[in-house]
Amino acid sequence: xxxxxxxxxxxxxxxxxxxxxxxxxxxxxxxxxxxxxxxxxxxxxxxxxxxxxxxxxxxxxxxxxxxxxxxxxxxxxxxxxxxxxxxxxxxxxxxxxxxxxxxxxxxxxxxxxxxxxxxxxxxxxxxxxxxxxxxxxxxxxxxxxxxxxxxxxxxxxxxxxxxxxxxxxxxxxxxxxxxxxxxxxxxxxxxxxxxxxxxxxxxxxxxxxxxxxxxxxxxxxxxxxxxxxxxxxxxxxxxxxxxxxxxxxxxxxxxxxxxxxxxxxxxxxxxxxxxxxxxxxxxxxxxxxxxxxxxxxxxxxxxxxxxxxxxxxxxxxxxxx
Length: 321
Ligand code: ADP
Ligand code: MG
Description:
Layout: H1 3-10, E1 35-45, H2 56-73, E2 77-87, H3 92-108, E3 112-120, E4 124-134, E5 149-154, H4 162-171, H5 178-189, H6 195-200, E6 207-210, H7 215-226, E7 229-233, H8 241-244, H9 248-257, E8 264-268, H10 273-283, E9 286-294, E10 298-302
Parallel strand pairs: 2-3, 7-10
Antiparallel strand pairs: 1-4, 2-4, 5-8, 5-9, 6-8, 7-9
Helix pairs in contact: 2-3, 4-5, 4-9
The structure holds adenosine-5'-diphosphate (ADP) and magnesium ion (MG).
C-alpha cells in the first residue's frame, strides 16, 4: 500500500461541515460569524508519550483527546483537525485501529479530520485542532483574580492522578490488582477531554488551564499569567478509590504532580459556586473546589487541617535534567 492509498483508505472520510476536506492542497473551513478561531497543536512521540505496545485505537483516541482538551480549556467548540503522521511501516491492522479510535472521538465532538501529512519515519503523531469561540469569550489563563475560588473537574466518583498511578504501576514502583490496573490504565490511555464543561464555563470561569503536566505545575502557569497566587488544599483534590487505597505520599504525588489528567483547572468568583456546579452537571462531570486565589504571588499548599505542606512537587518538563 502506498502513501496515497493509505490516506484514501484510513484518513479520508467525507466531511460535512468543512467546505473542503482531505484531497486538495488545503482544506477549507469557515468559522461562524463573529467567532474567533482557536488553534492548538500537540505531538505524541513513541517512547516518550506512549509505549509501542499501546492499543492503536487508544492511541488514535488519545492523540486527538489531548488536543481537544486544549480547546476545552479555552471554552472553544471543536470544528476540525489535521493529522501529521510518521509511520515506520504500513501495518493495515494498526492503521485500521488507530483511525477507528481517532474518528470515534472526532465524531463524538464534531471535529472533522480535514487534512494532514503522512511520511515514513519513527512513529510520531501530531494533531492540530481548530475550534471556534465567540470573539472575546475564550477562557484564558490570565483572568484569575484574588478572592476567586479554584476548582478542578473530574469524572463523577473519580478524581485526578489515575494516569500517574497507572504509569507507576507500569514502571513497577507499586502493584495494583487486575481490575484496578485496567481502570487506571483507561484513565492514562483514554482521557476524556472536558469539551462540554469548557463550553458551559464561558462567562462563569475567570481563568482556565487543562491539566496535562501535573496539577500544581499547570496551576503555576495560570497564576503567573494572572499575576496572582493561591493556596491549595492538597487533601481536597479528589481521587479515585484506586488512588485513595494508596499511601498518602503516593496520593499526593499522583494528584498534585501526576500529569496526563486532561481535567480542567479553573478559577471563578467565590459567589459563582452554584453556576460552576450547574455547568459541571450540565456537562455530565463533577467539579470540586480545591483552593483560593490570593493577591500574594506563589503557591501555598496546606493539608485538611490547614497546616502548610512542604511543596515537594515538580511539573513535567521534557528538557529538565
Ligand atoms: P501536499 O503534498 O500538497 O502537501 P499530500 O500529498 O501530503 O499533499 O497530501 C494529499 C492530501 O491528503 C492532502 O489534502 C492532505 O491534507 C491529505 N492528507 C495527507 N495525510 C493525511 C492524514 N494523515 N490524514 C488526513 N489527511 C491527510
Ligand atoms: Mg504533504
